[in-house]
Amino acid sequence: MRKLLAAALCLAATATGCGASVETTPKGPGSSSVTLTNCGKKVTFDKVPERVVTNDVGITELMFALGLEDRMAGFAMPDDKGDLSGVPWKDGYDKVPWLSKDQLTKENVLDARGDMVFAGWNYGFREDAGFTPDALKKLGIPSYILTESCRNDRTKTSRGIMPPLEALYTDLTNLGKLFGVEKRAATLISGFKKEIADVHAQAPAKKPTVFLYDSGQDQPFTSGRYAAPDQIISEAGGVNVMHDVRDSWTTVGWESVVERNPDTIVICDYGDVSAEQKKKFLLSYAPLRDVSAVKHRRIFTLDYVDLVESPRNPSAIARLGAYLRTTG
Predict the structure, then answer these.
(1) Furthest-apart CA pair in the chain: how many Å?
(2) For the segment 171-183, what is each residue's pLDDT rounded down to a tens digit?
(3) Measured between alpha carbons, how far is 230 from 165 in angstroms, rounded to an integer?
């Protein structure tokens, strides 16, 4: 399965190290300033970053997919985010220093002599630890915020300002402009859109309902409409039962899951609790016994990195789409 995944991703990411030859030289450090729109605000970078520090696997692989590992000073990421040996960007992981198996800190960034931090709210940026774009700005270090994590105006912490795949394409486009690899970004986006369109064209006429289960026993942690799983599910041919929740990753009540009676449950595989343990819990949890997905044991697993904004999203759509077609 890992070899098949790597092959599929390589096909989608033809502008990366899988064999394409486009824009081999990113924009040089002497280039003029670049202004981008990030989370609805204009952000100007006075120079092209040369020592980017990233947080988490999806963000890190966005840089790798664009061939920008030479512009990275390191990344922070727990080692529970799946097997990294079979991905198309293995060379990036081999080349770029793994700074921390926890979240980024200001000390990590300063020690690495970072000149830009690419992270997101709940993907590294957090007020409780004082690790925020504003705090880094005071140190003279600019930030780029993952678009999936952009905060909206509904609450102080709710996230998401656009559909998840649009967020992915926005970040690829912005990073392409910042680092002078616009063609590479455009080629990636074009390939992703084609791969996803091919899957969508095969979607079953009757769309199965899907619940994304990340974690939690007292209350489940899941995806609202602005996290990547919402559109991964819809493009695969299903309907996210929590689409009406105007947030990205968030907690809901089990009663809402029971009421919406999903046909399929997708497990997010990461962390100390294995996917198999999560599946056993779902199948044995009494309040769920009459839920269709549990009664018919329609439970599918995707990796964490498949389900956060990342260049693996199109491949996740293809695999989930195939599963929904076989169970529909």
Answers:
(1) 63
(2) 999 999 999 999 9
(3) 10
